Amino acid sequence: MWIRALLCIAMLAIAAGVALAARRDWTGSAACGTCHPQQLAAWQTTRHAMTRDRFPAKPEGRCLACHGTGEAPAGPAIAVEVGCEACHGAGAAYAEDDVMRNRPVARVLGLTDTSTPTARAAVCSQCHARQTRGTVFDSSAPVHPVKSVSR
Description:
Helix content is 37%, strand content 3%. By secondary structure, the protein is mostly helical.
């Protein structure tokens, strides 16, 4: 009974956008890449992966809210990069293979829904709410396009 109550509280907090992650809840992009190597390789070629190059020194917490992965500006950033978990949510709770394969459970445990263009736009618009450097943000463009391997 208490497990059901805990899951309900977690679902309500996630739906309300409340940050529940602690430093130990973040796995880092390299950990995600152990099961998703094509996505990791594709992401590594993007501006999201190269965020650190934009800052001459350690960025302020307010910058890391969009240019980092973690709890910034309210808490610590785990990386100066827009890593997997910056968009998909802190992964420690849902990273196990059997959990990741069960999407409803993974979502309850923190996996952010990015399965539709509307869901992706909602995630992306948290940082891409305005035009940057004269470039209009295209929410329909793939973030880390994976090229299919022809045989």
